[in-house]
Amino acid sequence: MECREQLNKWLALVSPTYGLQPETLTYASSDAGFRQYFRIQGTGRSYIIMDCPKEKQSMKEFVKVDKIMKTAGLNVPEIFEVDFEGGFMLLSDLGTKTYLDVLDHDNADRLMDDATTALVKLQVASKPDVLPPYSAELLRKEINLFTEWFLEKHLHMELSELEKKLLERTFDLIIAKNLSEAKVYVHRDYMPRNLMPEPVDNPGVLDFQDAVYGPISYDIASLCRDAFISWEEHQIIDWTIRYWDKARKAGLPVPADFGAFWKDVEWMGLQRHLKVLGIFCRLSYRDGKDKYIGDLPRFINYVSKTAARYDSLKPLANLMDKIQNKEKQVGYTF
C-alpha cells in the first residue's frame, strides 16, 4: 500500500507533462528480480512505468545500458523521467507482445534473424572498461547456485567428497573455457521473453540492466537455448551458424572455425544452464515464485546432453544421470 501511495504521488508530479491518465494504470508485468512494470495511457500514446525499489536494485545501471544500446542502434525504451530516490521511471511502450508470445514454426527464422542482427550491432559497439567484467568470481558465484539451490535445497542431495571434488574440478574447466573467449558487451538475458517483435528488422530489447563485458558466445547461447522454449538441435545449430557468419562479416572476434565457436557456445551455455537451475529454485524457495520450477526439466536436459558430448565433462554427465534417476525414484514431476 505504501509503495502504491508513493507511485501515486510521483504520478501526480509527472502526469501533466505527458498527459498521463492515472485511472488507466494497469499492471504490465514483473521480472525475476524485484522490478514491477505498469502501463499507463498518455497524450496520443501509452507509457510504461518501472517500479524498482531502491533498497533492492539500482536504476542507474538500466539508464547507463539503455544509452549504450541506443547509441549502438538497438531498439530500447526511451527514458522520459527517472526518480532515483523513489525508484520510478517513465519509459516508452515497446508493445504488449514479446517473442515468447508470438514465436512459431512459420516466423521463427525471421525473428531469430532479426534478433541476431541486433545482437551483432550491440557487440560491434563494445568497449572495455565501460560495463562490469564478467569475471571469474562472478561466473563462479553464478555456477555455485546450482549446488546450493538445486542440488542441496531442491533435491536434498548430499554429494560424497569425491563427487564434490569432481564437480568443483568440472566447474573450473567450464569457467576457464568461458574466460578464454573474446570479450564483448553481454546482455546476459538475451532471450525471447526480453525481445519484442515490432518493428520488423529491429526488435525491441528489454531487461538489460545486468549487462556486462564478457564472453562473446553468451548471448547467442541464451537466445537459442531458451528458458521457456525448446528447439530442435538442427535449428539451434543453423541459427548459431547464421549469427557466427554475421559476426565474422562485422569483424567481431569469433573463431574462424565454426566447430571451435560451437564448442564455446556449448560450454558457455553450460555455465548459464547450471546457473539457471539454481536461480529457478531460489526464486521458488526464497521468493515464492513457484512457476519457474516447471521449467527445470528443460535445463536438466540441456546440461545432460551437453555434458555427455565431452569426455572432460563426464563427471557432470554422471551426476546428471544420478539426478534423473533420483527424480524417478521420488516422483518429482516439477
Main sheet: strands, sense, barrel: 5 strands, antiparallel
CATH architecture of the largest domain: Alpha-Beta Complex
CATH T-level topology of the largest domain:
Aminoglycoside 3'-phosphotransferase, Chain: A, domain 2
> In the residues, how many domains can be counted?
2
Coarse structural class? alpha+beta
Count every helix, treating DSSP H or I runs of 4 or more residues as helices.
11
N- to C-terminal distance: 33 Å
Strand content: 5-15%
Domain Aminoglycoside phosphotransferase: 25-246
InterPro entries: Aminoglycoside_PTrfase, Kinase-like_dom_sf
Protein name: Aminoglycoside phosphotransferase
GO molecular function: transferase activity
SSE topology sketch:
Elements: H1 2-18, E1 26-30, E2 36-42, E3 45-51, H2 60-71, E4 79-83, E5 88-92, H3 99-102, H4 108-124, H5 136-154, H6 161-179, E6 183-186, E7 195-196, E8 204-205, E9 212-215, H7 218-224, H8 233-249, H9 258-285, H10 296-308, H11 314-330
Antiparallel strand pairs: 1-2, 2-3, 3-5, 4-5, 6-9, 7-8
Characterize the structure shown:
By secondary structure, the protein is α+β, with helices and mostly antiparallel strands. The chain folds into 2 domains: 2-92, Phosphorylase Kinase, domain 1 (2-Layer Sandwich); 99-330, Alpha-Beta Complex (Aminoglycoside 3'-phosphotransferase, Chain: A, domain 2). It is built from 11 helices and 9 strands. The strands form 3 sheets. A 5-stranded antiparallel beta sheet has the order 1-2-3-5-4, with helices on one face. β4 and β5 (88-92) form a beta hairpin. α4 runs parallel beside α8, α5 runs antiparallel to α6 (161-179) and α7 crosses α9 (258-285). The longest helix has 28 residues, at 258-285. The two termini are 33 Å apart.
